[in-house]
Write a structure and sequence with these properties.
By secondary structure, the chain is mainly α. It is built from 13 helices and no strands. Helix 2 crosses helix 12, helix 7 runs antiparallel to helix 8 and helix 10 runs antiparallel to helix 11.
């Protein structure tokens, strides 16, 4: 490794540390605003609740369905860890155990920390346990979330088209999200095609070689993180795993409905799953408290479900998520806490083995 490459590597590490610091400060500052908004939403969601009815309904629940829910949640996290590995893998296979552990740690972070801080924990975890650059990991997470949102919007549009009693505001909101999602996907698809042009422009700019190397390296990792859209085999795997992941979430909703006799059909469960999935993309309080309650009451009321039934559904869903994550927390920490595997991305290999031009 040349001294210039060593300097570039150290500079990248300093940039990642600065990124962590900025994100932490931004999380703290935005957390105050997020907490305020979530508390307001929680107030509106809980206002007027008949707690006696809610508690009596919970007490009559069939907890065997909830045990099945924990199993289905574990399946969901497993599928999502495999799906993330599809995006992260380059030339070498990544160990499933570490990917599963990092996925659980990420969900734990979202459950106990504000502003989706779990996503940052995921990137730090795979960097420390697998040596995967943070920019690459963050890019794959962003790609995953964007494709998830597109999938959910498509589901929502299909379901809404089959229902006559959907409010105009919900239909309009879904259509707007569909347009925005389509535009974002087009931009995401075109990014790799513009990367060479940006590199040529950078080569003509009066920048230090080290700074130019850093920018080019970051761009390479950014493109690598979204190249799944350009590789049919990986795109197919990602699509199948996405379908399986959200199907398990649908089953989770049906299990919870069955456990408490809520008599929710497939259509309302699909729509509430879509609504909760889209709302989870918004930075929120730990575990999306407030946001989930407001969304559940708003959406399920359109199907004639009471406020208490909607709250039971979402409270139990959150309780099962916390329970499942805590059950897997210690194994996940053990899986990701071992010595870093000797895995080097092809981007790093080419940058370190080839002289800088």
């Amino acid at each position: 490794m040349t001294s210039q490459n060593t300097e570039t590597t150290h500079a990248e590490e300093r940039n990642e540390n600065v990124l962590l610091g900025k994100l932490n400060w931004r999380n703290i500052l935005s957390g105050i605003a997020i907490l305020t908004i979530s508390l307001v939403l929680l107030y509106f969601a809980l206002s007027g609740t008949d707690w006696a009815t809610l508690i009596s309904t919970v007490q009559t629940g069939d907890w065997r369905w909830l045990l099945a829910t924990i199993g289905m949640l574990t399946t969901s996290y497993t599928v999502r860890s495999i799906r993330w590995r599809v995006l992260l893998e380059q030339d070498k296979s990544l160990p499933f155990k570490k990917m599963f552990g990092a996925t659980i740690i990420g969900y734990l972070g979202n459950a106990f920390l504000p502003a989706r801080s779990g996503e940052l924990l995921k990137t730090v975890t795979v960097k420390r346990s697998l040596g995967i650059p943070m920019v690459l990991a963050l890019t794959t997470i962003f790609t995953e979330r964007l494709l998830d949102a597109a999938f959910l919007v498509i589901m929502a549009l299909i379901i809404i088209a089959q229902i006559d009693a959907i409010p105009d505001w919900l239909q309009s909101a879904t259509q707007i999200m569909g347009i925005l999602g389509f535009v974002a996907l087009v931009i995401l698809f075109l990014v790799p095609y513009f990367a060479p042009t940006v590199k040529r422009l950078l080569s003509k700019m009066p920048l230090r070689d080290t700074l130019q190397d850093i920018i080019v390296s970051l761009m390479d990792k950014l493109v690598a993180g979204i190249r799944v859209l350009h590789e049919p085999s990986r795109a197919f795997k990602f699509g199948i795993l996405t379908l399986v992941a959200w199907s398990t979430d649908l089953a989770i909703g049906l299990f919870i409905s069955q456990a408490f006799g809520l008599s929710m059909g497939v259509v309302p469960v699909i729509l509430i799953t879509v609504a909760l999935g889209l709302s989870s993309a918004i930075p929120s309080t730990p575990g999306y408290v407030g946001v989930y309650q407001f969304v559940a009451v708003t959406v399920l009321s359109q199907f004639g479900y009471t406020q208490e039934e909607a709250l039971i559904f979402v409270f139990i869903l959150q309780l099962m998520e916390y329970t499942t994550l805590l059950l897997w927390s210690l194994p996940s920490l053990a899986l990701t806490g071992r010595k870093q595997d000797k895995i080097t991305s092809p981007i790093s290999q080419s940058r370190l083995s080839s002289p800088t031009t």
